[in-house]
Every structure is written in C-alpha cells, then in structure tokens.
Design a protein that fits this description.
The structure is a homodimer.
Chain A lengths: L2 E5 L3 H12 L3 E5 L12 E3 L6 H10 L2 E4 L6 H6 L11 H6 L2 H10 L7 E4 L2 H11 L3 E5 L9 E4 L4 H9 L4 E5 L5 E9 L5 E3 L3 E6 L2 E7 L15 H18 L4 E10 L2 E8 L9 H4 L4 H9 L12 E8 L5 H4 L5 E5 L9 E9 L2 H12 L7 H5 L4
Parallel strand pairs in A: 1-2, 1-4, 2-3
Antiparallel strand pairs in A: 5-8, 6-7, 6-8, 9-10, 9-11, 9-13, 11-12, 12-15, 13-14, 15-17, 16-17
Helix pairs in contact in A: 1-10
Chain lengths: ~375, ~375
C-alpha cells in the first residue's frame, strides 16, 4: 500500500484523501489548523507550513508528497530537502507565488497576456499608468487570492488611496481587461511527460470569488460555445499554453491555467499548481476526476480519461451551507460539505448538478434555481451554455 | 454537523464513510479488527460486536446508528437498547440471520420461493428429501455467507457426509434451483415510508462468491433482457417483493433482495439488510449511490434518484488486488481498493467499468478482458447483456 503526504489540509486535500482511499492509498496531511477538513479523514501533523522538522517528519513517513495550495513557503520546502518525493516540485511555486514572475513567464513562453508593469515606486506606477491608461488594477505580487490584495484604479483620484493601501513595493500594475467570458483549463502531466487536458471550463466569479463552473457534452463533440466560437480552436489554444508551462517546470501532477476570453482570443490570467476549484465538476462528470488524475500522476500510475461524461454545473457554497433538506430534492445534485465552520466569505462546500443530456440538465437546473438561495443565480447562468 | 455510528468497519462501512464525508457527516465505527478498512478513515472503537458497553459508548457519541453486516448479534443490539437511533432496526436482523425464518417470511408475504424444509433431525432430513428429491442443498440456518455452511446433495451417497459435516440441528434443506440468471434488487426506504428501487442487477457468482454485477441503460427504457424478457415485468415483480419486506419491518435504509430467474419468474433467495456488493456500480453509474441513499434514509434527508446513468459492470477482486499499472490503462475503469491485506478468498477490492453508451462500454470491456487476470472473464460475461 502506498502512502501520500499532503502539505495543506483544506478542502482540496480532503477531496484528494477521499479519492486516495479508493486507490488504496493512505494519506497524512500537514496543516496548522487542528480541525482541518482533510485531517478529519486521515492522520494529521498539526504544524506550520514553515516548520522544517514537521515537513521532514511528513516526508519520512510517506512514499510521495504533494501540496494543496500554492502559498506554501517555497523557501521552507527547499530547506526541508524534499527532493523528488515532492510533486509538483518547488520551482513552479516560485513563479505561482509571484504575479510578476508569472506574467513574465507567460511572455517568455509566447502565451498571450494583458499588459503589465512591475511597480516598486511611485514613479514606476505613474510611468506604468501612462502606458496602460485608466482603468487599471494595482496588485500585490504575492499572497493575493480570491480578489484580495488588489485595487481597481478607475481614474486618477483612485491613485492615492490605492498607493497608501497597497504599500510601496513589490507591486504589479495590470491593464484592466474587458473580457467576454472567463475560462480555466486543467491538465495533468506525468513523469514520462504525457499531458492530458480536460475540456475548457467556463467560470463565473462574483467579487473575485469563483461562484460557478460549467462544462458541456458539446465540448467533446467540439461544437461551439455560447458566443458562436469553435470549442476546437479555443481548446487547442488553451492546451498549447498549458503544455508550454508544464514542460517549463518538468511538471508532475494537475496544473490549472485561468484565462480570459477577449475578442475571440484567450489571454492568460494566472496559474495554480494544483487541483482547482473550477475542476470539482470532474468528480461526477468525468471518468477520472482531477483529484484522481493528480494522484495517478504523483504516484506514477497511468493517467485517466479527461473527457466530459455528463452535462455539469458546479456551484460554490460560500459562507454557509444551504439547506440540504431542500436542495437534496433536486435530482442529480451532488453535495460536497467540506466539514468547515460557517464564516462569511469562506468556501464551505460545493454542489455539482449533472444531467445525462442537455434536456435533463436544464430541467434539473430549473428545479434547482426554484430554491432559495439559488433564485438569483438564474441571471448569472444566462451567460453559460 | 451530523455524526453517524457504524457497527462493523469493513469495506461497506468504508464506502459509507467516504460518502458520508461528502455529506458533511462524521462517522465512527465499531469493529474488533484494529486495522478495519473504515477505521482508517474515521474514529474507531476497537471492540467485539457483543460488547454492550462499547455499543452504548458508540450510541452515546453519535446522532444516528447503522450496521454494515447482518451477522451483528441481534441479542447484543437489543441489550444495548439502541432504540430508534439504529436503522435498520433489530427486527430484520432476527430474520436475516436465519435462513428458515427468511424463507418463511417470503412465504408469508406471498413472495415466490423455492421449496424448503426445516431440518432438526435425521428423520426430518429424510422426510424433506422425499419431498424435494435430489439434488438438494443442506444449509445451516445461521452464519452462512459467500457459499459457506452448505452442502450439495447430488445423490443418496452424499447424505451421510453432509450430515456429519453440518451437525444435526438448526438446518434447512432447500430444493436445488436450476436458474437461468441471478439478480438482485436494491431498494431504499425512508422514515416516511417512501421506497425507491434501483434497476435489477444481474449477478454472476463463482463458487458461491459474487464475481460480477451488471446494469444497463436499456433498463431505464424498460427494454428486454438477454433472454428476451421485458425488464418492466421483472422489475415490477422484484419491486413488489422488496416493498412487502420493507413494509413488514418498517424498514429505514437500503435493503437488498437476491433473486433467481427460473422459467421467466423471479424466486426470492435471500435478503441483506444493508448496502450490498451487487450495488457497488451505483457509486459511478447512478446519480445517487446505494451508500448515499442509505445515509440519506438513515439521516432523514430526501432520497436520491435510482436510475442508471451509465452502462456499468462491477468486478470483484478476490484474494489479491490485480496490477493497477495495467488495469488503470483501461478508460472508464473505476478502482476501489479496500485497504485490506491480501488473503485467499477475501474480497479485497472491486472495479466498476463504465461507458456512456453500449458501444463505448463494449470497446472498453474488450480492452479490459485483454488484460490478465481478466481474460477468462470473457466466458462469464457472455451471459450478461
């Protein structure tokens, strides 16, 4: 029986642990939270992510190591000398933890990306704004996620407030991107260099937080998206980007690339060197979920299929879980409660609605949105297939 | 967050625990084996099933209680006064633990069943054989499973050996049934009395142990089985039986009824008051698995859909797990390793092969049977749809 260590014990680790059990793999997680969602289902080392001794202890106890979020301190992982047991490796973390390096990598690999400028002084910022014009977005290079660590500059008056708020260095100014749609592509690469990509996922964010994700069976047949564009062309462009990034790091495991669709072209936004919220639909609507494919890659097992096997819509539950008594009445709704305490803004669970074809899916969707708190979702969903 | 106690910590409890996690339900199991498959994923009380204090401690720690096998001593459960926390209740165990009571119940409820006779003496046996003729099967009334505790009497010469071997009382003689096919029906009943049944599963046993189970999408459309019989008619007959049994015990949870198909009619064989090996396909090929529906019933949540959502074949792994490196290359093969030590005759895992339609399923099946140890499966599978 193989054993796997996971640095981080949140919901992504939890879903990895559940899938690992089916593969007969025992997990152990490292997380400072003594009631971490994944720790409820396996052994846990309660320690900070930069606790070198704890990292070493985890590594010694397992056959393979991975992480469930990209802000694990790269320096600590390096110091703990986890070597080839760790996949993905440390190199991708240096880039994924830094918006500037990330965008520079896109440029270097010939991946289309919006305008950006490093900002380390007020002069830098003014020069950068000369190039991008208003609106633009000022962001911290590090530790930003779910819309945190950024300020929108609509006009010159916003500049001072943002400058005070964000501190004066290690910033990046990005041109404001007016996109038609948001996508992500999730791929998996094994040690032999084989890469498989799931179909593009269409995402909807609210206040910087992912609200829902959609994949359709039409994408297997390579039809058209709701804007009349060929899936084939978009998919090829996205896969080419993902391949280039994965090659760059000799990457092993699941890798996610978030993208904006602007005027028929995909622009790279950011990478996540891990399983991703926008891939949760794959638990029910793919023959091999992102969690299983990550495990297969990390444990050197054959990669699984990445086609869509059902119409699917993933909905995040934010702050608190909705009423299960009501929602479990909707057929084809798959419930995922992360075992967390309710807290405003916190991702506490998700559900994936599935249908074997579009007619069944739409019927179920209408049943779903008839329930509060999903009535207002209808507007969001108009934009999806 | 709700909590569930499970008496028994084998693979059925393990799969309940995995599904419970998605529902945000924390489990605790009671099992004498300190490395029980389910105990690897939740808290475990290591104690014998008739340890009244341990049963009480489990009951006090949880909101609801269930069991994962039918040979939990009914007397101990009664003595522990688990009351309405326990579902299914104790009454069904008295019947499910006794082949004679079981067959008498079938008769009482008007459910078709093969000939049987209580045997408590040599005279009983001879009288019973006068009625059934040879061949017949002599079985212990209690503790038989997977073909254990039974002897086939082909001719008069077998009588003495069997009589010596089986002991002289608490036996049942059953007429030998020549069946065309074996089926099971799995249903779920909630506290309000609502019953939902999955489509009939076709099963193949080898040496008394379940080898594989098959469900097809054709069953949703109520087409015909491989013998040209209407699914509709068979399904209706099986559901009527299951309803009657469930009503009898005011049953809450998943209930399984095993059936023989003889000359176009279904004969009841035995019941299992629990999730069942022949329902494992439902994890991937139904919108709500037998495990989830059992949890929903026991925890008083709405029941989920029971239709088939993919072509599916479940294969048991007996004795040892096959080579994952080879088999995970088969697309649509879902792997379930129970985390057990290999041991001859032991169920150590299963896999379910799925396909979105019959063409894809057959293609994948051919790929599967090209791998050892599944080459010889082909003959077994000829009989399935």
């Amino acid at each position: 029986m193989q054993t796997l260590g996971i640095i981080g014990g949140g919901q992504l680790a939890r879903m990895l642990v559940l899938q690992a059990a089916a593969l007969g793999v025992r997990c152990q997680v490292l997380d400072p939270n003594p009631d971490a969602g994944a720790g409820q289902l396996c052994q846990q080392i309660v320690a900070d992510y930069d606790d070198i001794e704890a990292l070493r202890a985890l590594s010694d106890a397992v056959d393979a190591l991975t992480y469930d979020f990209e802000n694990v301190p790269a320096a600590a992982l390096q110091q703990a000398k986890l070597g080839t047991k760790l996949s993905p490796g440390v190199s991708v973390l240096h880039v994924a933890q830094d918006r500037l390096k990330e965008k520079q990598l896109f440029q270097q690999l010939g991946i289309e990306v919006g305008g950006f400028h490093a900002v380390n002084s007020r002069t830098d910022l003014l020069e950068a704004l000369d190039q991008t014009g208003y609106p633009a977005v000022l962001k911290t290079r590090r530790m930003g996620y779910d819309g945190k660590g950024q300020a929108l500059l609509r006009q010159q008056e916003d500049l001072e407030r943002a400058w005070q708020q964000m501190g004066g260095e290690d910033l990046i100014l990005e041109a404001f991107i007016t996109f038609q749609q948001e996508y992500s592509i999730i791929g998996v690469r094994n040690r032999a260099g084989e890469v498989r990509c799931y179909p593009l996922v269409q995402n909807v964010h609210e206040h910087g937080v992912l609200r829902c994700s959609r994949v359709s069976l039409a994408q297997n047949r390579r039809g058209q998206n709701s804007l009349g564009q060929n899936w084939d062309q978009l998919q090829t462009q996205a896969e080419t980007c993902l391949h280039a990034i994965a090659e760059q790091f000799d990457y092993v495991g699941v890798l996610t690339l978030e993208l904006f669709l602007c005027d028929g072209r995909l622009l790279a936004n950011e990478i996540a060197p891990r399983v991703h919220n926008s891939g949760h639909w794959s638990i029910e609507a793919a023959d091999c979920s992102q969690f299983e494919n990550h495990l297969r890659a990390v444990l050197d097992l054959p990669l699984g299929p990445v086609t869509v096997s059902a119409e699917a819509l993933m909905l995040n539950f934010i702050g608190t879980m909705p009423d299960a008594q009501q929602l479990l009445q909707v057929p084809g709704l798959h419930w995922h409660d992360y075992g967390k305490q309710a807290r405003p803004g916190r991702k506490v669970g998700h559900a994936t609605l599935c249908g074997t074809d579009l007619a069944q899916f739409r019927q179920r969707l209408q049943q779903l949105v008839s329930h509060r708190p999903f009535t207002q979702l209808w507007t969001l969903l108009q934009d999806l297939q």
